[in-house]
Amino acid sequence: MKSKKIAKNIYSLKYNMTEFFAQNKYKIIVCLLFCFVGLLTGIFTAIKLYDLDDSDVFESFNLTYQLEDLEKFSQNFFGRLLSYEIVLAILLIFSLNPVLYIFGWCLLAYRSFLISINCVMLILFFSFNGIIKALLIILPCQLLMILILIGFFCYMIKHMRYNRCVNCKKFTLFFNPFLIATLLLSLINIVETFLLFIFRSNVILVI
């Protein structure tokens, strides 16, 4: 009985996701294109900045110049928590009107830019340790976060448009998607923070 219920829930989730992608494929493609441009820009920018020994560069782009900064558990978790909560709130605002959509796409592109520039700089500066942290931990987790932000933005665009058509002003229209996105992002944040804490530089060197 339980197996049938689980199978039904999995099928329902799969159907809902398929329907969501089908209904929002063009918006998702636009978001992915902006994010791809942001990733490429971050890679090329990191390579150009590699030869610059300027601390202002690190501060301007929030770049990590000490591996210990990545391994501080509470500081990194709550720092990322605040960051994606702010991004979610801004994306929610940008989903209110079609005129603002471009700013949401640019925000996603900038978020992608920061991911790639940080990862590339970690690899260039810290070689093996940087590769472990950037490619095996940070990049996969951050890309998952970007996908969740894209899904949230596209979902809110659709429902804000429907809300205008039916003149619905329910608070749950905003709160429930925001809460679900926050929970998913926090789960990934916990995984990333734990992995960075477990695979600290001294642990990697011992192994």
Main attributes?
207 residues, 7 helices, mainly alpha
Set out the fold topology.
Layout: H1 2-49, H2 55-60, H3 67-70, H4 73-94, H5 101-166, H6 172-198, H7 201-206
Helix pairs in contact: 1-5, 4-5, 4-6, 5-6
Describe this structure in words.
With 207 residues, this protein is an all-alpha fold. It has seven helices and no strands. Helix 4 (73-94) packs across helix 5 (101-166). The protein is globular and about 55 Å long.
DSSP helix fraction: over 70%
H/E series: HHHHHHH
Shape: globular
**Structural class of the helices, strands and pairings?**
mainly alpha
Q: Whole-number average pLDDT? A: 81
pLDDT < 50 runs, ≥5 residues: 203-207
| Separation of the first and last Cα atoms | 46 Å
The whole-angstrom Rg is 19 Å
Instruction: Report the major sheet.
Output: none
Sheet-strand content, in percent, reads: under 5%
Q: Report the total helices.
A: 7
- Number of β-strand runs: 0
